Amino acid sequence: MDGNFHHRHQRSAGDCPPFYDPIYFLPKPQVDEVGKRINAACKHPPRQYKVAVPDEAVDQCETSYKAADGKKQKAAMDSFNDTGIMALICRHDIPLFFVNIDTPGEQQKYSVALIEHFFSLIPLRCNVVILYDIGCVLARSLMKVCMCISHSVGFY
Fold this sequence. Notes:
By secondary structure, the chain is an alpha+beta fold. The chain contains five helices and seven strands; from the N terminus they run E-E-H-H-E-E-E-H-E-H-H-E. The strands form three sheets. A three-stranded antiparallel sheet has the order 1-4-5, with helices on one face. A two-stranded antiparallel ribbon has the order 2-3. A two-stranded parallel ribbon has the order 6-7. The longest helix has 15 residues, at 28-42.
């Protein structure tokens, strides 16, 4: 899973033709709902959790990756309504699902929405490993807010 800021949608191009149903793209309301849940969870004090990787190491990873800064603008927001795409790809390099990135940076709501959608389609008792360049940062965030997805996914 990763975001790509080279695929943008120019605001002046308009929407896609109405006959096309982009079934591999998660709808914006679904992604925004995940963002609302994350923001609401962040307003509560962090819960106690077992540290798999020391916070100092995750902090260093977070500051070294541009992707970990969800507020950092990576594309001109004034000309583009979608500034990138995040994709969930299987280990055979087959794209499974996409989300349009419509914020200045690669926020966690995009990756969580993709993972939740994927989990909604597979059996409950599956082993899933997520490879993501800032997986350690995402895993720590999910553990702090006690979102159930963090307990069933191995992030690497």
